[in-house]
Design goal:
With about 230 residues, the protein is an alpha+beta fold. Helices cover about 35% and strands about 35% of the residues. The strands form two sheets. The protein has a six-stranded antiparallel β-sheet with strand order 2-1-6-5-4-3. A five-stranded antiparallel β-sheet has the order 8-7-11-10-9. The termini are far apart.
Amino acid sequence: DAILVRDLDQRITYWNKGAERIYGWTAVEALGKRADELFSTDNSMNHQEGRRLIVELGEWKGELRQTTKSGQEIIVERRRTLLRDEQDNPKSILIINSDITERRQAQEALAVSEARFRQLAEYSSEGFWFVDMNPQRLTYASPAVEKLLGVPAARLYQDSGAWMAAIHPDDQERVQKNWEGFLNGHPILFEVEYRVVHPDGSVRFVIASGTPIRNAAKEIIRVGGIVKDIT
């Protein structure tokens, strides 16, 4: 982390190795400089308002964008604490900045990826689903799953047995054995054909397939798959 101390006029009085590493300026270059002149900060809160809050509350925490010596823009999580003298008067501000640029970029990329997946899943005729382990529960079912099974997604999420209940009684035991065998590693991938009975009594033939998602210990933590109508 970058740890620095500045006085109430924003003059930097302490600049650690972490600050050198994150921002690029050495302590010799930074000490005595005004913080707002050293690196530009994109922050909706102006300095006067920030100073008022830090004096009134004693601390402040938030995220902001800053520019390093090389001109690179980074995102930091900032924690500011007011330091007082022996007479309890404000004298300086301790600042600890953590560079969270990579974390934010990863989160943004994940959000884009999830949006693309949902776009695909929402409009596909094949049903997409995810089941988490420990406890075993359905965590995502696309609209096509509801249509194929004839069961509302809300019920599938609330009742762990709703999916099995939609399967034709003559196929339930076979599907259950196939699922349990898959979770135990035999077979490696889940795939089974069965019939579903809709509320109006109509019968459809479907095929469901799934792939295990494992953690570092090779344990299955989630299963993702599709179900499609093969009637």
